[in-house]
Amino acid sequence: MDIFDKIIAGEIPSYKVYEDEDVLAFLDISQVTPGHTLVVPKKNVDNIFDYDEDTAKKVLLKLPVIARAIKASDDKITGLNIQSNNGPSAGQTVIHSHWHLIPRYDDDNLNSVLAPTIDNSAHFSSEQYQAIADSIASQF
Ligand code: 5GP
């Protein structure tokens, strides 16, 4: 069981923003920018090379829906990067497919999201994580 399986099973807590039968979306603990969300298939799919057609449809069709909710959650969000690292050589550290939805702000000074190795977790309290998650979740 990888760490995202444990989050899906509720064995490890997370700040959920969206859930249905096939997909879970929750805040990335690292918060590259505020609202940084991971979208994961509940099915244990390792990476992009491992998706069957049905799972791809169910997960990928949710990306615009969740992206819009993130954008609507904060009027300072002016853009959003979507990134998925596939395989250790591409920077994948958790071997359970996931899509980084990284909101962008005009003043975020972020140079690259190509490998989201930035860790801002020290700057967020549990109340702040919860407030961001609630604000996104309320958009559905
Ligand atoms: P990767 O490097 O595989 O593309 O992304 C893995 C992501 O998972 C990282 O951005 C990291 O911050 C996030 N992550 C790792 N462990 C946890 C966890 O226990 N909870 C949450 N919410 N995010 C995690």
UniProtKB/TrEMBL annotation:
<feature type="domain" description="HIT">
    <location>
        <begin position="3"/>
        <end position="111"/>
    </location>
</feature>
<dbReference type="InterPro" id="IPR011146">
    <property type="entry name" value="HIT-like"/>
</dbReference>
<feature type="active site" description="Tele-AMP-histidine intermediate">
    <location>
        <position position="98"/>
    </location>
</feature>
<dbReference type="InterPro" id="IPR001310">
    <property type="entry name" value="Histidine_triad_HIT"/>
</dbReference>
<dbReference type="InterPro" id="IPR039384">
    <property type="entry name" value="HINT"/>
</dbReference>
<dbReference type="GO" id="GO:0016787">
    <property type="term" value="F:hydrolase activity"/>
</dbReference>
<feature type="short sequence motif" description="Histidine triad motif">
    <location>
        <begin position="96"/>
        <end position="100"/>
    </location>
</feature>
<keyword id="KW-0378">Hydrolase</keyword>
<protein>
    <submittedName>
        <fullName>HIT-like protein</fullName>
        <ecNumber>3.-.-.-</ecNumber>
    </submittedName>
</protein>
<dbReference type="InterPro" id="IPR036265">
    <property type="entry name" value="HIT-like_sf"/>
</dbReference>
<dbReference type="Pfam" id="PF01230">
    <property type="entry name" value="HIT"/>
</dbReference>
<dbReference type="GO" id="GO:0009117">
    <property type="term" value="P:nucleotide metabolic process"/>
</dbReference>
